[in-house]
User: Fold this.
Amino acid sequence: MRTLKLTPTYFDITRWHRRLSPLTNQLVISGDLNEDPTLATNQLAQWQQAGITHILDTREEWTDEAFVAEHAPEITYGWFGTHDNGTPQPDQWFDDGLAFAIEALQNPDAVLLVHCHMGINRGPSMAYRILLELGWHPEDAFETIRAARPIAEIRYEKDALNHYRRSKNHHPVRSAR
Assistant:
């Protein structure tokens, strides 16, 4: 696995936490909605102005499904929460999130936002898996995410790659640790 060398600039959470980071014209990653309802409403309006039509939320600890349904009912919301404790992500998590994403992306006008709390691990890892499913080379997918969102660690990259390889009957990646 890679060793990330992040400069202190990348840890400016106020700069990156809730910033939309486009990966393609249909796939965006970010952190979550603000906990303040007024700020969240404004943020959601900005997401709509950016063309977001679908939200794939990967946080186990919270969902904004009811809030989005009330304030932006035209956005399709999928909650596929999981842990962020560094242990492997289950195949079912990738299966469910990927099914939602692929269905959304079949519409050429759809724009899918994948997010977790901070936009560092879970959301970028799911976006990585989506890019693999769309035919991206693993290194290109990883580098595209890191270029768009420098704070992304993509902690579950190996899990996503192994899930992809199992789905395509390839050999899984073995850890060198």
The radius of gyration is 15 Å. Residues 1-10 have pLDDT under 50 and may be disordered.
